[in-house]
Amino acid sequence: MEFFESHHDVVFVSVPHDAYLSLDEAYYCSISKPTACIVDLKGIMRNKITQRMYWTL
Fold first, then answer.
1. CA 35 from centroid of its chain's CA atoms
2. In sequence order, what DSSP letters do the residues of 1-21 get, joined into one string?
3. Alpha-carbon gap, residue 19 to 36, rounded angstroms
4. Which of 5, 26, 37, 44 could form a disulfide linkage to 53, CB 3.0–4.6 angstroms apart?
5. What is the pLDDT of residues 18-38, one digit of tens each?
6. Cα–Cα distance measured from residue 27 to residue 17, given in angstroms and rounded to the nearest whole number
7. Secondary element (H or E) of residue 48
8. Domain spans in the chain, listed from the N-terminal domain onward
9. Whole-prediction pTM value?
């Protein structure tokens, strides 16, 4: 998945599928820039993202 090996400005997680639940902060850091924002609509990573800006509803 070459697309996911880039460094994105925003990573948008909108559904709590099992595939996303198994991902950890290291994964999100590996695909995003240090200044990126992780947008997590369902809050599946709430209190787990500390190395990137984090936003949830």
1. 12
2. -GGGGS-EEEEEE----HHHH
3. 21
4. 37
5. 998 999 999 999 999 999 999
6. 16
7. none
8. 2-56
9. 0.84
